[in-house]
């Protein structure tokens, strides 16, 4: 397989540039009309009988990060992610994975790329019901022609990672939904891919089980450090899991940022409406709410001797606990240096803004 990571790309693993996907036999004409006349998704459907799945998406995903793609059903999340392992080909644009142009792969290279480089986890588990759990997990290795002993050894190892070591000999259909999804994840991990694509993996599960799997996944990710593209229609889930989040609407990416960026500075009314329901307590950090030291001193005079201290990375929840127990302002430090002040005013303002829709 051709692999050339140029140093300038450094940490970027997935590089998506100006990708369009239009479904239908008139896709090229439709795209031209969008460029020339700025037709909307609805107009394209009416005039060209074509569906805009992904519209001019550009984004970079970095090594080891969990990148969430969030949006309502039909916003283009699955269509976008399927370009990364070339289950779909773009109408226009470029997809690079680890310096490899996905569109330039020969059929043989593509097979290898999918088997080794990229693991995929689906919403509906896609397990073979009448195979044992262990055989399901070892399937990607079987496809690669790895011998049975080695397959089973690796299969057992990844099953242990998802805490299902005792279930290897059961049939897949004997397991609960949450367990089947863990088997799906183990199967994707068995090939030890560089990149994990997860398309709404937890969406079909009950809220409690879902929460539990999110927690397990967060822990496992911290150990594996695999570059992960995680799709969800649930912003709460994206905020819990994602290092960065891209929000999609009608095929377009309308905002990319950390949970804090998105919650504190939604790009438009559409995103603002989504974030209105998100608790800021764990998401927003001292850095984003503090006032500059000088501004505080100008208004209130020198800092009192009993001022409290907190790091700029501490979240709102921690600041609230400090402010409950003590009247003094909180001095915020970045790399040991005092940079700002948080008083009850900043805390209460941030909390109330988070509960009101604009
Ligand atoms: P999401 O995963 O965010 O729910 P999808 O990527 O599945 O959204 O779909 C994006 C848009 O593309 C939708 O309008 C959908 O109807 C359309 N679409 C997806 N796959 C196809 C296809 N194979 N043929 C035609 N339209 C499609
Ligand atoms: Mg989808």
List keywords for this structure.
358 residues, 2 domains, 6-stranded mixed β-sheet, 4-stranded antiparallel β-sheet, 40% helix, globular, disordered N terminus, binds adenosine-5'-diphosphate, binds magnesium ion
Fold and architecture overview:
The protein is α/β, with parallel strands linked by helices. The chain folds into two domains: 205 residues, 3-Layer(aba) Sandwich (Rossmann fold), CATH 3.40.50; 68 residues, Roll (CBS-domain), CATH 3.10.580. It is built from 15 helices and 14 strands. The strands form three sheets. A six-stranded mixed beta sheet has the order 6-7-8-3-9-10. Strands 2-1-4-5 form a four-stranded antiparallel beta sheet. It has a four-stranded mixed beta sheet with strand order 11-14-13-12. The longest helix has 18 residues. The N and C termini lie far apart (51 Å). It binds adenosine-5'-diphosphate and magnesium ion. The site of magnesium ion (MG) has 3 residues, from helix 3.
Question: Describe the biggest sheet?
Answer: 6 strands, mixed
Spatial ordering of strands, largest sheet: 6-7-8-3-9-10
Span between N and C termini?
51 Å
Q: Let me know the average pLDDT.
A: 92
Ligands, deduplicated: adenosine-5'-diphosphate, magnesium ion
CATH superfamily of the largest domain: P-loop containing nucleotide triphosphate hydrolases
The fold-level CATH name of the largest domain is: Rossmann fold
